[in-house]
Design goal:
It is a single chain. By secondary structure, the chain is mainly α. The chain folds into 2 domains: about 5-235, Serine Threonine Protein Phosphatase 5, Tetratricopeptide repeat (Alpha Horseshoe), CATH 1.25.40.10; about 240-375, Alpha Horseshoe (Serine Threonine Protein Phosphatase 5, Tetratricopeptide repeat), CATH 1.25.40. The chain is about 70% helix and about 0% strand. It contains 18 helices and 2 strands. Helix 7 (about 145-160) packs antiparallel against helix 8 (about 165-180) and helix 8 packs antiparallel against helix 9. The longest helix is centred in the middle third of the chain and has 25 residues, at about 210-235. It is globular. The two termini are about 25 Å apart.
């Protein structure tokens, strides 16, 4: 995803500005001479006296009024407008730390950026935007594992506060997992991202104030779907054969036996319902479940899993949804994920899922004991 699209998404997700400016260098209060007398640098990070917060924010704001060379004029204007809105009130300590971090980054002071970003996170640990900004800088400096950790931490925080943020930060974490060749983790993380894009479509739709914003969000979701299919191709030869799953779990229908007329009716329903679900016009766990069932009928098990994950995002204690998710995983020959979903259904009271979960776990154990070269490799994605 381009820098422009990442910025547009972040601007639509938070009331706090993000100025991703290219930076590197060393830390120290000397890098910000206008901060003299306003703060002290302690072993645990910068400390700003509360009475100086407003004054400091205004001084930093003056430094942010220049136009970076790597950002479009419209984005700069949006950031400056947000800054002006922020400075109409007494800024909170974390906002000042965040502004200072961005200024240090613009001045090619990477260490200083990290000092102030960690200070902002200590003050406001539940602000996912701060954690995401931290991930962006780790990514830029090639510290990919730390970037992944930061993005996943941002997603966990956003899950309880700003669910749209969870969708995009899971996508960014998945991108890095794919780059590192950690394809099983990337697959699950892309699916989680796409499920959240679908489950929280109404919330995301409300943020699309203009065509530029809509294009950025649409591009992020589309890229996640594209990368998920590429990852699945990488993983295809590692899946156990459908024949083995059918032998171990004979009560699970792995291939649809519906007649042609039923399949065509399901295809027509998908064509009608999918755009409404994607746009947030139709929402709720039931809508995602029905769409998942139709996707399964027409053989699109990738989309079926995503919609079932969306349904359990919205109704995490519904045992039927977890059971259906387990069966959908089995249709993709994904025993480990199926075992986990069926176990969850069992824990929620679905007794029929209990023996299936155990059989799935037993199959996983047997596979781990087989030589990799000796495994059958027929798959259905």
């Amino acid at each position: 995803m381009s820098l422009k699209d990442r910025l547009i998404i972040l601007f639509t997700l938070s009331a706090i500005i993000i100025l991703p400016l290219v930076a590197s260098g060393r830390a120290g209060a000397q890098a910000l001479p206008e901060l003299g007398g306003l703060m002290s640098i302690q072993p645990k990070g910068p400390i700003i006296r509360q009475e100086n917060m407003d004054n400091l924010a205004r001084k930093l704001g003056q430094g942010l009024n220049r136009q970076p060379t790597d950002m479009e004029t419209g984005l700069v204007a949006a950031a400056q407008a947000e800054l002006r809105r922020t400075l109409k009130r007494e800024p909170t300590p974390d906002e000042v730390y965040f502004l200072a971090a961005q200024e240090l980054r613009a001045r090619k002071n990477t260490r200083g950026f990290f000092d102030f970003m960690f200070a902002a996170i200590r003050v406001a640990p539940n602000n996912w935007v701060y954690r995401s900004a931290l991930g962006d800088e780790f990514r830029r400096t090639e510290k990919k594992q730390k970037a992944i950790d930061s993005y996943l931490a941002a997603a966990r925080v956003a899950q309880s506060a700003d669910k749209a943020g969870a969708a995009i930060t899971h996508k960014w974490a998945a991108d890095l997992l794919r780059q590192l060749g950690r394809f099983p983790e990337a697959e699950r993380t892309y699916e989680r991202s796409l499920a959240q894009f679908s489950a929280y479509a109404p919330e995301i739709e409300r943020r699309m104030s203009d065509d530029r914003t809509r294009r950025a969000w649409t591009a992020a979701r589309s890229d996640a779907a594209t990368q998920l299919l590429a990852v699945k191709q990488k993983l295809a030869k590692t899946r156990p054969a459908a024949q083995m799953i059918a032998k171990d779990l004979p009560s699970v229908e792995l291939i649809s036996t519906a007649d042609k007329g039923v399949i065509e009716q399901a295809r027509a329903r998908v064509q009608r319902a999918a755009p409404d679900v994607r746009s947030g016009l139709v929402s709720g766990a039931g809508a995602h479940y029905l769409l998942a069932a139709d996707y399964a009928l027409i053989g699109n098990d990738v989309a079926s899993v995503v919609e079932l994950l969306a349904s359990v995002e919205l109704e995490p204690k519904d045992r039927q949804l977890w059971r259906s998710l387990g069966h959908a995983y089995l249709r993709q020959n994904r025993l480990s994920e199926a075992a986990g979903a069926l176990k969850r259904a069992c824990e929620l009271g679905d007794k029929d899922s209990c023996p299936l979960a155990q059989k799935a776990f037993d199959s996983v154990s047997r596979l781990k004991q087989q030589p990799a070269a000796g495994r059958p490799v027929r798959t259905r994605n």
